[in-house]
Input
Amino acid sequence: MRWLKFTASGVTSWGLVENDEVVAIDGDPLGEWQRTSRTYPLGDVKVELPLIPRTFYCVGLNYLKHLKEAADKRGEIPAVPDRPEIGYRAQNALIAHDEDVVIPSFATDKIHYEGELVVVIGKKVKHLTEANAMDCVFGYTIGNDVSERSWQKADRSLWRSKNADTFKPMGPWIETEADLDKMETIVRVNGTETNRFVTGDMIFGVVPFLVELTKYFTLWPGDVIWMGTDGASPDIKHGDVVEIEITGIGKLRNRFVREGQ
Amino acid sequence: MRWLKFTASGVTSWGLVENDEVVAIDGDPLGEWQRTSRTYPLGDVKVELPLIPRTFYCVGLNYLKHLKEAADKRGEIPAVPDRPEIGYRAQNALIAHDEDVVIPSFATDKIHYEGELVVVIGKKVKHLTEANAMDCVFGYTIGNDVSERSWQKADRSLWRSKNADTFKPMGPWIETEADLDKMETIVRVNGTETNRFVTGDMIFGVVPFLVELTKYFTLWPGDVIWMGTDGASPDIKHGDVVEIEITGIGKLRNRFVREGQ
Output
């Protein structure tokens, strides 16, 4: 199933995407719900942010090419993580599919995308095992971990570089049937392909992360885990449109605009 | 006003603490509300977590003694921050006043408290100025930024050390009338004073943080900013009770228990 949060006729609700139509749902996919008789052409609705997570987890370095790229820039030898470690992003930065990423006027030109698989948690769980870890996964969506690299270098943490308002597009919907082993991530800037990688080629996959995190943390319904990215991004300029496709899920597309231009 | 989230007779709601009584409120202090005729003795109600913030901000190093203590341990010269920088904590870790901090069975003995002033945001704001910054502050509460120091040393970020379940007690209530210039923070372990500092003796105060954060971030009602701590903590053991008092606000008290003991 493909769960879309959307607005039509002034009402925001959940819906199921079926072919090119949205069937409105009463209730919440993470709780009780039922189909209604209201349907809308997919192209006519405003796509909303699927959810605001209670806790917003994000893996920093989880693909070898991205790791090497980052280390090369620092003139260092890449240190491959020897265990799953997590970081966080901030809820203020989230925007929906088709909403604009607004680059602050005082940011440098070093604005980069990072296309990421997003795991959406569906159950309250702790102490997961390899055998039962995937039971808590409700579905998948797509994230763009937009970064301002000069701030990333200058700051003690990732506060400005990763969490400025609008720097975390997520969507367009949550797909419950996608097969992690078959996904490919493709990034296009203004329609031209700039990155392509096998989504599952992670240093640590979804299951090891779920097992490790839940040794310490309770995961709650609606929590999200952004799984990291591979490769590198060109500098994204005012007016560029970045589209992140993950096969089997969909396409997350956002225009980048510079404040005051 | 002193806003308490509480449970009595099986119902959770907001209330106003007046002397030793709680007056139940219909609605939400950050929105519409009105007093009811229901009152309860303060000692008889279950104190709940005041709120789960949308974004959970936390200042790392904001007091000179704490900074020096941390640098000394690393054999380094303390580097005093030259501008306000923020970090994040995770919502999963929050617990209420009087709930137990549960130390995982596999944690070391290096369990420390950090008594912190918590700023609770009441309005959706961006681009604050020195002149209007305080208008967005709804009130203050108290936080205990519990830390496992061996994990803090070992990890790439603060994920386990600061955010294990139950490591973020916050409460007991939100005080709207407290005067930042008159506060003193006092920590007691099993009733014996172990720290005392002037709460406002921050390297960067509340106003500079609000101005700097809102250059990049929209603050939302219910967001919290934990303002950092001074001094150092002894190792906290199974059964210890840590009480953090901030004068003019109240006392946040939690027992520490080690899992499996």
Summary: Helices of chain A lie at 64-74, 149-154, 159-163, 206-216. The interface with chain B takes residues 52, 54-55, 60, 81, 85-88, 90-93, 104, 126, 155-157, 159-160, 163-165, 215-220, 223 of chain A (CB under 8 Å). The domain at 49-258 of chain A is CATH 3.90.850.10 (Fumarylacetoacetate hydrolase; domain 2).
